[in-house]
Amino acid sequence: MNNQLPFSLLTPDLVLDALDSIGLASDGRLLTLNSYENRVFQAGMNDTASLIAKFYRNARWTTEEILEEHHFVSGLADREIPVLPALSINGSTLHEFNGFRFSVFSKQGGRAPELDRPNTLEWMGRFLGRIHAVGALQTYVFRPMLDIQSFGVEPARYLQAHDFIPLELRDVYRGVIVHALEGVRRCFDRAGDVKSLRLHGDCHVGNVLWTDEGPHFVDFDDSRMGPAIQDLWMLLSGERAEQTRQLGALLSGYEDFYDFNPREVHLIEALRTLRLIHYSAWIARRWDDAAFPAAFPWFNTQQYWQDRILELREQIALMEEAPLHC
Fold this sequence. Notes:
Blueprint (H helix, E strand, L loop, with lengths): L11 H10 L4 E8 L5 E7 L5 E5 L7 H16 L16 E3 L2 E7 L11 H18 L12 H14 L8 H22 L5 E2 L9 E4 L2 E4 L7 E2 L3 H4 L6 H15 L13 H18 L5 H5 L6 H19 L6
Antiparallel strand pairs: 1-2, 2-3, 3-5, 4-5, 6-9, 7-8
């Protein structure tokens, strides 16, 4: 497999030929779905319902890491937890065609969940508790850990080493990053010894599809080892009182299936801070992909970095406040 293959080579004809190579005959209808990290297509099929084809970004995950995530999600589906596993075709969930690795999934409809409704959050909490109960049964061997080094220190170092930050803001950004990471470490110290388990990893509202049967959790591409609160905090929004209510609703369902360590609330703002740093570096690392300058034209402007500095300063203050009550 060529790790340098750009997505520009992934033409519609190549996508259809890739599907044909594993015995899936498309009727030629191909719809590009919203995805920046990978490339995802809805393909109309001759004899079955439409399928979803996901082509992985080269050099991001190893084959072992992808298959490990597939095994986790398949185990969840086997327990009737509403997730979307990669389909096993010809005895495998991962395929390769012309240097591109890809997987195929059933199409799952749904809408965004209404997180302002307590019963919706409680319902989602029940399934997250079930996901974590399974996630705690084994550890990932190949997939990485969500930690300060990989989500904070290394991304910040990359941004500062590759001239993405305007010259007049570099010293300010460097100073803010130092204080932000110090705050993150203090939060982790206050949380103490927190258990790591296999997570969804990117459990925001865009990765939950709601139907009359409840939530369906999709896109485990960022799955890794980490604290349980990582899959909960991204579902919280609004003022402190509102986030406290939302967390309570989530946990009321969650703890029916898995015990939540209340000390993990010390990590909420720390994990939010790490995500902010990591997100900027994610865009920077993908800047040679033509889709990124087109999608994020405001990146690498002075206003963007001024906003990030302000954002991190706000996080530094929030990390010094008492955590949410649960």
